[in-house]
Amino acid sequence: MHHSFLGFPSRLPDNNAPRAVIFSAGHGTTYPGKDSQPYALGASAIRTASLADAGFVGNWDFDLGGPLFDGSAPSVIDFGEVPTTMHDNEGNRSRIEAQTRSVLGAAAVPILLGGDDSVPIPFLSAFANHGPVWVLQIDAHIDWRDTVDGERFGYSNPMRRISEMPHVAGIVQVGMRSVGSASNTELEAALAYGSHIITAREIHSHGVDAALNHIPLDAKVVITLDCDGLDPSIMPGVAARTPGGLTYTQAIDLITGVGARAKIAGFDLVEFFPPADHNGVTALTAARLIVNAVGTIVRQAW
What we know:
By secondary structure, the chain is an alpha/beta fold. The protein has a single domain (5-298), classed as 3-Layer(aba) Sandwich (Arginase, Chain A), CATH 3.40.800.10. Helices cover 30% and strands 18% of the residues. α1 (42-50) packs across α9 and α8 runs parallel beside α9 (281-298). The longest helix has 18 residues, at 281-298.
């Protein structure tokens, strides 16, 4: 049985225009010889976890300081799954970008549930006629590799590819820590581009303003959230657990902070690896992050 996020409909009554559209994509660009199938299970697990709160949408939400839709009629729909096939890399990118463009063309905010960390590339590509946009990445890694096994659009490449998009005005990267696939060369390339890299330790020491202050006032911002950006004590369902990550409160403060000083133009959540989850805690946390994104978006100026 297919569930929708929080039981949201696939269309609004009387065909009213939605403020945001949730959709998912299980596969983006999979590296040669790799298996991305476990990531494709993430969106369904998040939708299922959200259903426990489906009956409370009109109740007070202490994260948001009021009900989810702030006293207004529900204005978010769940389009469902974009059909993707592992290793149909070009086709997957085309379908994800087309769906994102469709949402933007309807003047709604796209919310994408991944999938691995390759899906932000076509997601951001779709904003070509809706820029300039800033990108806020929440992640343990900078994802700035140019190629991996000859592939340029996989899960280690998104920020490098996004930095090359002319409609992207700037990048803020938050949550970096420990060691990953990035070499000195990748870090130097990110810094040469002008990316603002704020480590998890800096957020713990100075608060989320250490990141938010780099985002221009009133900018349009696309948030891309890799689940390993948060600490594995609250999001264990990732392939590369790294201690010292952001807390849930820091993550939602980043989301609401963008809404307060700028405008969320798009949001994606990726890299949930359900086989590594414990008692559904990652799915639950991911669902709550999406709720906070929705609540922030519907409070923005239309």
